[in-house]
């Protein structure tokens, strides 16, 4: 019994000894290929693919500027700057809303609008919105609105209340932008032209599937 055990162990050691040079050669070739950039470890090899996939899910800045310019029918230095600021603050959006709205305020204000949600990966749908605002706010407007949408998992997640981010209003060269945020999703409505309501109002916008006169 002991002799058999010994002979088995001896044969295994002999085989390993014979295979050792071949293994060293294989490892050497693997190292040379990796150094030449011909292969990558599985985790690292997946990184470029993940980055490409993330970019496929979002819009680049040039595409957004072009889409906004086509939508508004004009381009201004202010429009380019507010889009640049949005990309600097929030990164690349994965959707946007093209719409129009009307609103008015004397301290307490209301805003109504409707538009079309378009997602980079496809999909979207009709969107209606309304909401109140309370604060130092005075004026009236009727305008087109181009809203950048960030980190929206699916189209249905747009239908909810989005509180305004206090103090986020940015206005330059005839274009204005502010932020609304809820559960990691950020909306950045962009408005152009005369009639932009000034102020630092605090409120929310409720996005719905159907039109309603109820702002709440």
- SS-based structural class? alpha+beta
User: What integer value in Å does the Rg equal?
Assistant: 29 Å
**What is the number of helices?**
4
**Helix fraction?**
25-40%
Shape: globular
Low-confidence stretches: 1-18, 33-40, 44-53, 194-200
**What fraction strand?**
35-45%
Using brief descriptors, characterize the structure shown.
216 residues, alpha+beta, nine-stranded antiparallel beta sheet, 4 helices, 35% helix, globular, disordered N terminus
Describe the structure.
Strand 1 (95-119) and strand 2 form a beta hairpin. With 216 residues, the chain is an alpha+beta fold. The protein has helices at residues 2-35, 42-56, 61-72, 77-90; strands spanning 95-119, 124-150, 161-163, 170-172, 175-177, 180-182, 185-192, 198-199, 202-208. The chain contains four helices and nine strands. Residues 1-18, 33-40, 44-53 and 194-200 have low confidence and may be disordered. Strands 1, 2, 3, 4, 5, 6, 7, 8 and 9 form a nine-stranded antiparallel β-sheet that branches. Helix 3 (61-72) crosses helix 4 (77-90). The longest helix has 34 residues, at 2-35.
Question: What topology does this entry show?
Answer:
Layout: H1 2-35, H2 42-56, H3 61-72, H4 77-90, E1 95-119, E2 124-150, E3 161-163, E4 170-172, E5 175-177, E6 180-182, E7 185-192, E8 198-199, E9 202-208
Antiparallel strand pairs: 1-2, 2-7, 2-8, 2-9, 3-9, 4-5, 5-7, 6-7
Helix pairs in contact: 3-4
In short:
This protein is of the alpha+beta class and 216 residues long. It is built from 4 helices and 9 strands; from the N terminus they run H-H-H-H-E-E-E-E-E-E-E-E-E.
